[in-house]
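User: Here's a chain of 250 residues. Predict its fold as tokens.
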Amino acid sequence: MLNQFSRTQMLLGDAALERLKNARVAIFGIGGVGGYALEALARSGVGAFDLFDDDKICVTNINRQIHATLSTVGQYKTDAAKARVLDINPAAAVRTHKMFYLPENAQEVDLSQFDYVIDAIDTVSGKIELAVRCHQQDTPIISSMGAGNKLDPTAFEVADIYQTSVCPLARVMRRELKGQGVPKLKVVYSREAPLVPEQEGGCETGCVCPPDTQRKCTHRRQIPGSAAFVPSVVGLICAGEVIKHLTNLQ
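Assistant: Prediction complete.
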């Protein structure tokens, strides 16, 4: 019988679709990258998700985050994303975690329960902690490097962290992970040099975050610029790597 996954089934086959249905994927950071990764995985038939993010949708998210619309401004990103997944696949199991993942609360999350982890958070300490713990527990992970302040979606590629260059975030990650004994980490990164965003008139002078948002943009050291066609591509690349792994295509 035809269903929403029939076209995927034509390419991957019944056995692969069954593996996706039985898989549980965790996504840390439900923003521009994480939201599109979730979208692709849900449309591919992945059966269970854990979504980690404590942020609420702001009007400035609409330019790049697939679950951000005028009607969802003020909602928790995890809640809006869950509703979207269930509208695609009502049979999916979606658990939401309104938490800002950091070394201080990392022990609250059992990473061994996941078949794959996507790191789409933008805090270096959290990214490093997640990579270290996934390595320790032998949990597959892919990590998104910097997507902000970039305009060339064709420049992104999949590589091991120790084979990256140019990307400032990847440089910091390489150093820290080497010091903690992590021998490898699959990442999506770009060698495009980041642009310097125009800050005048930005969030620093007129924050429009929902009033009860705990971590407003004004608390950040620098607010990156972004476009619809860059983080989306990074998220889709992440999702593709997850699908290939879960279905034994690589």
